[in-house]
Each structure stands twice: as C-alpha cells, then as structure tokens.
C-alpha cells in the first residue's frame, strides 16, 4: 500500500512573526537543531513514506527552496488567504494516482513521532485487508490530533466540498465518511505552535521526542495489553527509579557537581517501560529493539540492559542505571533487598554451578552500583527505594498521573 504525505506550510504566520516551517527545533539525534520542515520530512521517511509533497503559499520562495533542498515535491496554493483547507485541497490535487492513503499534516505540528505514523499505517493496512476505507484519526487519551490519514478514494469527495464553498474546512468535508480513531502513545499529536510562546514550549518538549513522558509510557503499556500484574510492577519500578533520580539530582546540586543529574520523569518512564516485552526471550533486549523501532532510541537505551549491567568508575550514573537498580529492588510492588532478590535465584538454580556463578556475578555488579550510588547520594539507595514503594502503596491505584504537566513545562 503506497502512502503519501502532504505537509501544509502555506500560512501567513502573522501571530508567530516568523516562517513556521523554517523555525529550528532540536529534532536531530542528540538534540541537534533542524527546521520543523526537515524534522517532519525525516520522520515520514523514517516511517517508510517517501512521497512527500509540500504545499506553499505565503513565504513561498523561502519555503519552496528549503523543501527542494530536502528533496520534497512542491505545489503552491494560489489562494493561501482562504485558509488551510484550500492548501489541503491543493495538495490532494497533486497527489500521485497510485497513492492509496495520504497524510495531511500542518507543519506547525512538528513533534509528531514516527510511532504515530506507524500506528496509522498499520491501521490502514488492516482496513485494506478487510475491504474497508475509513478516515483514520490519531488520538491521545481520547483527544483527536494530527495527522489524519485519508484514503485516496475520498479525494474527489473532499475536492467537491471545496468546489461547493468549503464551509467548515476539512473537518466538514470528512463528516459522514467512515471514521476510525487510532489511539497512540504520543501526546505530541496535540502540540502545535501558533505564537512565540508555543514555539518556546515546543523547543523544550522536543528534548524528549526520542523517549516518552510517564503518562505516554503508561498509555503504551495499555496499548500493548500488558497484564495488570505487569502494570503494577511497572509502576513500582518507575516510582523507585524516579525517587533515586530525584535524590541523586539533589545531591549533585548540593555538592555543586557538574551537570544536573538524571531526570526523574525520564527515569520513571524507563521504569514503566522496562518489561514492555516481558514473556519474550531476552525480554530486556526485545524491549529495547521494540522501542527503537518505534523511533524511541532514548527509551530503548533505558530498557535494553535492565537485566544486567556494569558501569565504569569514570562513567556518570544516568537514568539507565537507576532503572536497572530499581528493578532489582522490586518484587512485584514489594521492596526486596539485593541479597534476598539474588538469593532466591541462587536457591532456584542450586543444582546448576554455571548458573549460580552467573547469578553471583550479577549480584556483585548490582552491589557495586548500589555502593557507588550510596556514596554519590549520601544515603542508602535501598532506603529510598523502600520509602518510594511505601508511598506508592498508600496512593490510590499506584498509577502514574494522567498528565505530567509540571514536568513537561506546559504553560
């Protein structure tokens, strides 16, 4: 099934005071900047969508030059003052005939992750297999976002609505057509930038585009149908990892060490996701691969080594090590010290000398990390873990908050 993408960049951007498509955002690996337009082009190509069409209008010369530099096809909306629907229609008229489905994506929604595009494409493939042609709308916690994925069979229907005056825009044109909502673990489908304040917020949010916020991680676990027992353990590990990160961060600040230390919310998200592929062989590595394939390499790094790892003395402690140790402290949602955790394994494999040697090796590495963390925090990490789990059990349900707004920098 061939998919295309229409990127809408024809607006005047009067409230922004700058060309939105060309605004720099930290969208490249490691947080390096690129334009919003380049970030979207990379996202679509990463999802396997190569036919990308940019619709220009106001600021056409600048936007078209940037688009051609990225290898994108370009069509100009002759009437950009008529609004976004006119741009969508200009793009639809230029879409190749062999395109089966088409994304319509405003360039001012630049942080959408490739996992969203993949979910929509998977849904479209399922629709095709069942002989259906629904308009596909991504949702996050029940809220509709961008981009919709439109079956090309409805192109003439949409263009006819434009010829009839276009009242109500694309939403009105799609009214009455078969529609399917596709839940995704991507809150960025809701984030647009209309003014400088929005742009400043999105520059901050973009830093976690290759990972997930805790609430997004929780949504991904639900979408993956992780059983309730697994969800409870995930919450426990997330709570402990976040608590360890917070104390380590505060300790670093008090000692005026370089750097800010690990991010508690990133550590929480890693803890939530650590067993996302539980049940598969080498589930920790399977989880890392799964998250990497979703376009989440930062999250993947937090998960892939949580069974066993060692940290060179010169290497800083990060969220990755805290997720690993947090998992070792949690038996379900109950605290367990390292000696008991590994002692249970030694008892289980008592008749297997090789297995026992491997278990003792893992215990030694866990103890070494625990000792180093105690030195850097000035407190026993086991005490922090125990307190975090006690607090979690007192909280109703023990689930992460639905909207971690305070950590996202929302206004």
TrEMBL record:
Keywords, sorted A to Z: Hydrolase
Domain HD/PDEase: 226-361
SMART domains: HDc (SM00471)
Xref: Gene3D superfamilies: Hypothetical protein af1432, Spore Coat Polysaccharide Biosynthesis Protein SpsA, Chain A
InterPro entries according to UniProt: HD/PDEase_dom, HD_domain, MobA-like_NTP_Trfase, Mop-rel, Nucleotide-diphossugar_trans
Superkingdom in the source lineage: Bacteria
GO molecular function: hydrolase activity; nucleotidyltransferase activity
One Pfam match: NTP_transf_3
Hydrolase is among the record's keywords: yes
Name of this protein: Phosphohydrolase
Organism: Desulfovibrio fairfieldensis
């Amino acid at each position: 099934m061939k998919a295309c993408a229409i990127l809408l960049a024809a607006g005047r951007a009067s409230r922004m005071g700058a060309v939105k498509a060309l605004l720099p955002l930290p969208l490249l690996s490691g947080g390096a900047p690129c334009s919003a337009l380049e970030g979207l082009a990379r996202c679509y190509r990463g999802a396997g969508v190569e036919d990308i069409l940019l619709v220009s209008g106001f600021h056409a010369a600048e936007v078209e030059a940037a688009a051609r530099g990225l290898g994108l096809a370009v069509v100009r909306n002759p009437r950009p003052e008529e609004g976004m629907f006119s741009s969508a229609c200009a793009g639809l008229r230029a879409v190749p005939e062999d395109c089966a489905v088409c994304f319509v994506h405003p360039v001012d929604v630049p942080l959408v992750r490739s996992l969203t595009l993949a979910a929509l494409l998977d849904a479209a493939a399922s629709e095709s297999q069942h002989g259906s042609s629904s308009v596909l709308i991504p949702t996050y916690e029940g809220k509709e976002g961008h981009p919709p994925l439109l079956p090309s069979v409805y192109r003439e229907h949409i263009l006819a609505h434009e010829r009839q005056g276009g009242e109500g825009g694309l939403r009105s044109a799609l009214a009455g057509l078969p529609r399917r909502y596709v839940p995704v673990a991507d809150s960025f489908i809701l984030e647009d930038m209309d003014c400088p304040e929005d742009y400043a917020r999105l520059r901050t949010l973009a830093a976690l585009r290759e990972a997930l916020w805790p609430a997004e991680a929780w949504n991904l676990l639900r979408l993956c149908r992780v059983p309730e027992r697994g969800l409870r353990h995930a919450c426990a590990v997330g709570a402990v990892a976040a608590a360890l990160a917070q104390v380590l961060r505060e300790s670093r600040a008090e000692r005026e060490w370089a750097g800010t230390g690990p991010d508690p919310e990133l550590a929480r998200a890693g803890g939530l996701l650590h067993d996302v592929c539980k049940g598969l062989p080498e589930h920790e590595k399977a989880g890392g691969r799964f998250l990497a394939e979703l376009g989440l390499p930062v999250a993947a790094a937090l998960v892939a080594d949580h069974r066993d790892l060692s940290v060179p003395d010169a290497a800083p402690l990060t969220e990755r090590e805290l997720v690993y140790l947090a998992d070792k402290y949690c038996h379900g949602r109950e605290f367990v010290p390292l000696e008991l955790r590994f002692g249970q394994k030694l008892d289980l494999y008592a008749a297997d000398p090789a297995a026992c040697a491997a278990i003792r090796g893992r215990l030694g590495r866990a103890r070494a990390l625990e000792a180093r963390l105690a030195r850097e925090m000035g407190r026993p990490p086991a005490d922090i873990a125990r307190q975090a789990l006690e607090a979690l059990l007192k909280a109703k349900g023990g689930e992460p908050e639905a909207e971690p707004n305070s950590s996202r920098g929302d206004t």
